[in-house]
Amino acid sequence: MLIYLFTAAFIYYTIWILIMPFVDGMNPTQKFFLDREWAIVVPVSLMLFGICLVGTFISLVMIKSQRKTHKT
Protein backbone atom coordinates (compact mmCIF):
# COMPACT_ATOMS: atom_id res chain seq x y z
CA MET A 1 0.00 0.00 0.00
CA LEU A 2 2.84 2.35 0.84
CA ILE A 3 4.44 1.74 -2.56
CA TYR A 4 1.30 3.10 -4.25
CA LEU A 5 1.45 6.25 -2.16
CA PHE A 6 5.12 6.84 -2.99
CA THR A 7 4.51 6.10 -6.68
CA ALA A 8 1.62 8.56 -6.80
CA ALA A 9 3.71 11.21 -5.02
CA PHE A 10 6.58 10.65 -7.47
CA ILE A 11 4.30 10.93 -10.50
CA TYR A 12 2.63 14.07 -9.10
CA TYR A 13 5.99 15.72 -8.37
CA THR A 14 7.41 14.75 -11.76
CA ILE A 15 4.44 16.23 -13.60
CA TRP A 16 4.58 19.33 -11.38
CA ILE A 17 8.27 19.94 -12.09
CA LEU A 18 8.75 18.77 -15.66
CA ILE A 19 5.44 19.39 -17.43
CA MET A 20 3.47 22.13 -15.67
CA PRO A 21 5.98 24.95 -16.30
CA PHE A 22 5.23 24.56 -20.02
CA VAL A 23 1.43 24.56 -19.60
CA ASP A 24 -0.44 27.85 -19.90
CA GLY A 25 -1.22 29.50 -16.56
CA MET A 26 -4.93 29.72 -17.37
CA ASN A 27 -5.22 25.99 -18.04
CA PRO A 28 -7.64 24.31 -15.58
CA THR A 29 -5.05 21.66 -14.68
CA GLN A 30 -2.92 24.34 -12.99
CA LYS A 31 -5.33 24.41 -10.02
CA PHE A 32 -4.27 20.86 -9.04
CA PHE A 33 -0.70 21.97 -8.36
CA LEU A 34 0.85 24.34 -5.84
CA ASP A 35 2.89 27.39 -6.83
CA ARG A 36 6.30 26.70 -8.32
CA GLU A 37 8.31 27.95 -5.33
CA TRP A 38 6.86 25.09 -3.27
CA ALA A 39 8.53 22.67 -5.67
CA ILE A 40 11.82 23.62 -4.01
CA VAL A 41 10.62 24.29 -0.46
CA VAL A 42 8.92 20.91 0.06
CA PRO A 43 11.82 18.61 -0.95
CA VAL A 44 14.42 20.74 0.83
CA SER A 45 12.34 20.73 4.01
CA LEU A 46 11.89 16.97 3.83
CA MET A 47 15.61 16.47 3.25
CA LEU A 48 16.54 18.69 6.20
CA PHE A 49 14.07 16.85 8.42
CA GLY A 50 15.55 13.50 7.35
CA ILE A 51 19.10 14.69 7.98
CA CYS A 52 18.06 15.88 11.45
CA LEU A 53 16.50 12.49 12.20
CA VAL A 54 19.61 10.62 11.09
CA GLY A 55 21.86 12.97 13.07
CA THR A 56 19.73 12.56 16.18
CA PHE A 57 19.77 8.78 15.86
CA ILE A 58 23.55 8.67 15.41
CA SER A 59 24.04 11.02 18.37
CA LEU A 60 21.85 8.89 20.64
CA VAL A 61 23.67 5.71 19.62
CA MET A 62 27.05 7.34 20.28
CA ILE A 63 25.92 8.63 23.70
CA LYS A 64 24.56 5.21 24.72
CA SER A 65 27.69 3.39 23.59
CA GLN A 66 29.88 5.88 25.46
CA ARG A 67 27.88 5.33 28.66
CA LYS A 68 28.36 1.57 28.36
CA THR A 69 32.14 1.92 28.02
CA HIS A 70 32.32 4.14 31.12
CA LYS A 71 30.40 1.59 33.22
CA THR A 72 32.80 -1.27 32.46
Automatic annotation (TrEMBL):
Transmembrane segments: 5-23, 38-63
Pathway, per record: Protein modification; protein glycosylation
Main location: endoplasmic reticulum
Subcellular location per the Swiss-Prot or TrEMBL entry: Endoplasmic reticulum membrane
GO molecular function: enzyme regulator activity; glycosyltransferase activity
Record carries keyword Mitochondrion: no
InterPro entries in UniProt: DPM2
Statement: the UniProt record of this protein carries the keyword 4Fe-4S: no
One family name in Pfam for this protein: DPM2
Any GO BP annotation: dolichol phosphate mannose biosynthetic process
UniProt topology in membrane: Multi-pass membrane protein
Record keywords, A-Z: Endoplasmic reticulum, Glycosyltransferase, Membrane, Transferase, Transmembrane, Transmembrane helix
A GO cellular component annotation in the UniProt record: dolichol-phosphate-mannose synthase complex
Annotated family: Belongs to the DPM2 family.
PANTHER family recorded: DOLICHOL PHOSPHATE-MANNOSE BIOSYNTHESIS REGULATORY PROTEIN
Subunit field text: Component of the dolichol-phosphate mannose (DPM) synthase complex.
Protein name: Dolichol phosphate-mannose biosynthesis regulatory protein
